[in-house]
């Protein structure tokens, strides 16, 4: 088919009206073969191109989704050099090129998803999205409470850290029609959010337990249910939407866990400790008190104890009182500062703001008084 405008493809697929489709394109919510499209002139081929809106394929009818209850003894690769049986031998659906979503080793059984939708496969299997996978595990003996806590905290195995999201004891499963009762002494339900190679077996081996039966019973919101061993069925539209929703929620959770630039700076600052010279951080350091406004400036109120100084124009300009002591400068024509402790101004210098007091007249005939006889 010839290339068509993206807004027309979205409208014909029932995603939205053409006007809303244009807004989806302009806001960068539409991708074609993994490339974000932000121009209204963008075109695509609906038969060959993968068109995705908000992480969900538009032309989903091109994709097929199957659930398989894998029996023990089958491998999850499409081609095997040793010519062993594969899970694709159990799903004969013609010429559609399918692939498995994740892996399940040959000695394990349970839920396996098969599809030709590469985008959903990436969302469900990439470690950073952490979509839940739940397993029913049959053991030779029940681990102690401390060992169960270790599985959640994490255990070391061959230099690699392995941990479960949750672990709890479980009851033995009921055997299916024509099946024998599973022979295991104790059972656990274990949830993982990563897909490391043989992770469940290695975790339990690290605490000294042997796995007898390992069955995957859930991937995200999708449960294995009563599907018999070796049987498969195609997923419903609601189940596909639920898988996409779970994957997108995990993606949003992963993006929200990334700290912002401001949070990273605060974390680095807390690791570095207090800055040099202050002993305290900038937030803990007390603020300096505001400096008092200097008296004597024009337009300001004279400070207590100051007296007006008369200028050449005859007007009084407020000025601070002259300082007492050796450091104070004397005005021209004065005899210098007053002696310390005299309580009087220097000779020839009247107190500021008051006229000089007249000297008392001395009588010429007066005689100095002596001691009384």
**Helix percentage range:** 10-25%
H/E element string?
Answer: EHHEEEEEEEEHEHEEEEHEEEHHEE
CATH classification class of the domain at 62-256:
Alpha Beta
The name of the CATH architecture of the domain at 62-256 is: 2-Layer Sandwich
Mean pLDDT: 76
Count the beta strands. Answer: 19
User: Regions with pLDDT < 50 over 5+ consecutive residues?
Assistant: 277-284, 306-318
End-to-end separation in angstroms reads 146 Å
Shape: flat
Beta content comes to 15-25%
Give structural notes.
The protein has 373 residues and is α+β, with helices and mostly antiparallel strands. Among the domains are: 4-59, Structural Genomics Hypothetical 15.5 Kd Protein In mrcA-pckA Intergenic Region, Chain A (Roll), CATH 3.10.290; 62-256, Pseudouridine synthase. It is built from seven helices and 19 strands. Strands 7, 8, 9, 10, 13, 14, 15, 16 and 17 form a nine-stranded mixed beta sheet that branches. The longest helix is centred in the middle third of the chain and has 20 residues, at 237-256. The radius of gyration is 45 Å and the shape is flat. The protein starts with a strand and ends in a 54-residue tail after the last strand.
Short description:
20% of the residues lie in helices and 21% in strands. Strand 2 (30-32) and strand 3 form a beta hairpin.
Tags for this entry?
single chain, 373 residues, alpha+beta, Structural Genomics Hypothetical 15.5 Kd Protein In mrcA-pckA Intergenic Region, Chain A, Pseudouridine synthase, 9-stranded mixed sheet, 4-stranded antiparallel sheet, 7 helices, flat
